[in-house]
């Protein structure tokens, strides 16, 4: 790992966020399994987990779901308030992979996968595949690997593709949302190759190593915007509009109050 791509304080913050995520997960995993198990009772099919092709289907179903969940986490502020944690480091190394949300599952993001047990995938299969996806994404948080072989770059998410995703540069914002397969980005028009060195972090960085601040800063900002809205409709709009969205204002006022899009 290159020295200029790493600081002890930043890495410690990322590790603290990862430990907090594990701690919350200890309490949430049982509840998530219970919800998936409840839904599984109403399944449309029974997909036999002893069959190899059922696992292949589960892999594609999980990866497809992750792509849309990840993409919407960049375009819906309620989801972004949790996901922004992972983008808050201005460094890109393996410790950055550990910088995970404390609030994601608490706000129900696991429900994006609810269709899978309803379809017929056993809850253990769904949760196992989610774990495999998360483990895969650990190794791609590095600058040590510049490019994988061309066939691998064409199909899978790689360090190069994911560096683009973590960039705050205008041409890289909200691109490459893949979990394991980069093919979803290619298919749905959100793929951008790495052509220039990325600038990591947010378009408006928070400049803190405090884990509590990292975990909550966007929730606090969202609450302030909603509280200050002139109507309940505008208040709800802050929840579901993209990060950085502000109501229409006269040009002079907008110049003073508008915030850049955060990704």
UniProtKB/TrEMBL annotation:
Compartments in which it is found: Endomembrane system
Classification via Pfam families: FA_hydroxylase
Transmembrane segments: 15-39, 51-69, 112-139
InterPro entries: Fatty_acid_hydroxylase, Sterol_desaturase/TMEM195
Tagged with keyword Disulfide bond: no
GO MF entries: glyceryl-ether monooxygenase activity; iron ion binding
Superkingdom: Bacteria
Keywords of this entry: Lipid metabolism, Membrane, Oxidoreductase, Transmembrane, Transmembrane helix
UniProt name for this protein: C-5 sterol desaturase
Domain (Fatty acid hydroxylase) ranges: 55-190
